[in-house]
From TrEMBL:
Residues 1-50 are annotated as: Disordered. It comes from Amphiprion ocellaris (Clown anemonefish). This is RRM domain-containing protein. Keywords: Exonuclease, Hydrolase, Nuclease, RNA-binding. Residues 500-574 form the RRM domain. PANTHER family: RNA EXONUCLEASE 5 (PTHR12801:SF82), RNA EXONUCLEASE REXO1 / RECO3 FAMILY MEMBER-RELATED (PTHR12801).
Amino acid sequence: MESSSSLSSSPSLCNTKKRKNTAVGAHEKAKTLKTEQEGDEALQSGRLSRSPRVSVPLDCLQQPITLNKLTELLHYAALGRTGGIKQPSWCRLRHQKKVEGLNVVIVEGLTQSHFYKHYLSLRQLRTKYTTRVTFTPSCNNVASGIFSSELPKMDCVYFSKPDNDLHSALKGHPVISKFGTQRRGLTAYVLTQEEMIKKHYPVKGMPGFEEFVSTDSVDCVTDSSPLYGLDCEMCLTEKGHELTRVSVVDSDGNCVLDNLVKPKNRILNYLTKFSGITAAMLQPITTTLRDVQEKLRMLLPGDAVLVGHSINNDLIALKLIHQHVIDTSLLYRREFGQRFKLKVLAETVLKRQIQTEEKKGHNPSEDAAAALELAQYFIKTGPRQVVERHLEELWGYTIEEEESSDCKSAPTPSLRFADILQLLGRSVAFLGKRSDVALNLSNQQWYSSDKEVLESFKRQTKHPFLSVVQFSSFSNHLKRRFLHQEQLHRSLCAYLRDMCVVFAGPFPAGFSERQVRRLFHCCGPVGRIKMLHTSVRVHAEVEFELLEGATLALKTLNGLNVQGQPMKVQRPMNESMLDLDLTLDALTGDTLNTSHLYAVKLNPSVAECIKSSAKLTDTRSTLSEETVTETFGHFGTVERVILPAKPGKHTRHACIKFESSEGKHAALSSSKYLRQENYLICQSLTPPHLPSWVAMATPVTTIRGDGETAEDENTANMYHSSQDLEMDHMMKKLDSRLGKLFRSLPDSTLSVVVLLGHTSVNGHFPGLCLMEVKQGS
């Protein structure tokens, strides 16, 4: 007697009319759903059709990408056809001209296998990014590779500027953005009260400065007001940093004040390396802070403008409020609030060496004079000329004259991606741990933790056009916490393979591995089979290549009579599988699988063949793209049929991509009809960029000298719940940070997250690249 779960034999003639009626009903239902969907889409088409979108064609989806391919996309997104860049062959970016920025997040130490093992914990990543593709890094420093990636020769017309100047190219430069291009008097560079408050300068009436002394300043200064350079040195006392020396130079560079000062409180550290102050120098000094405050009040005229480098620190040390100041660290501006050191500016602009190693500490008179000269040079030269003269030395731009007669009037940039973006006035930045990145230091921000990186990025009021953010905490923690990373990766792979494994049996005595393979192949491609022999019965461990194969085997073959003996099909029973149902539910709802369906074509007489142990080689049933499209086209427009069989091999299973999710749901609701047509179907679970779920969980292993592979199966199958819980916690924290970073991006930003993968002597685990263009609310 056959079980109710047995596979159907060939359908009888009397049921033909009934099945046709069912097919018509399903077709009408699909048409209705499709009409409703088109109406919904029409409401949104006004916004979505005009927004930039990124996607990967199905025929390219299962090919891993390298760094070179990723940079092809970034180049096109930034410059487009106008800049002579072609659309990448492996992906599609629609409405490129509306892309407002590029953001790449690099996550070290994380692999594609990590992503799917901890799939439930990575809610932000799996829901916000609708495009995924396997990533294989071609170099160790991906961030540097992005910035230094070379572009093809570009038309000089693209870089030509009106009236043969650089204004349009450098309009986004921080100096030009703040001060414009015209040369103006000194009053244009005096900080406003609002700027002083924002930058924490001592301002009368503001909290924290109640005990500060004010100079007798006039309300307004003019372009002819005198400039005075100021610099101070401090030491560390019980109450914090206190003044030990003050120097002032006049407009001609003459030193008009240079006094050592005795701190009020006990000195803990003279900071000699920086200040040059020693205990012996201060021992005879009786001058106090109050004394130098009074000297400065007497020395400075009412319309004096104080000049210094980060002069707010000097004024705080002096406990002095002065209304009119010019800060050279804010004249020679850098991106994102970073500042040049005075030593760098003096060497680059003034061609003068200060604060050299030969000298013991800084010379405040020398530093005050340098700051004064830098301000005078900036005012006299004007911001445009300052930027053009020191563009490469300070800000990392490179501009060369084009030799071609057709392009003599246009500067030709170097062909590095970062250089060209900056030449076009588009800012670039790297945020992450200190590393060797092919980018000018003025565009790099280094932090010790991912939290600091995220907070810094979120604080930016204006995001750079191209930002590369590197998260390293996960990799660092992995190295410190898990001493046996190879064991961890093998355990990870064992879990992913277990998701595709079913245990089946008992089988009749003498049932062979070949017969088991033929039986379970009706649900999908079968990989490894391990026969399990006990003293009285035979069982088998069957590993499918796809998650869908294991799912269909559980639904279809469990309870099947095999030569009169009922067979039980079940998943592995171990701790790692406890939440598998939740993972499969999440994969079912994955944005990548919204319109995908998995289908298997059964042989009409397969059940009878199994019962009689007949050979199945002559009763093979295969699929073609035409037959699948014809059958499933009743439920909705079929966009693509993927037949993963190797050339010359038969295939019984297919992945069907409908034009809309309604087509998939209509087919699923007609599963009984399709079963009568000898099709088994289920929702797609394996993301379309993976040709095989099991292949993802199998590293490319190396061979030891003794001929054995580096993988130890016993170790690979070990499962450490405490470590896994810790990994889940780390993943959730990482996912939360990635979600916050994504939300902070401006609309129409192309966001890319790269999980770098893991390489060792024992093999290579590929990474993952996730892409999405952030849409408006």
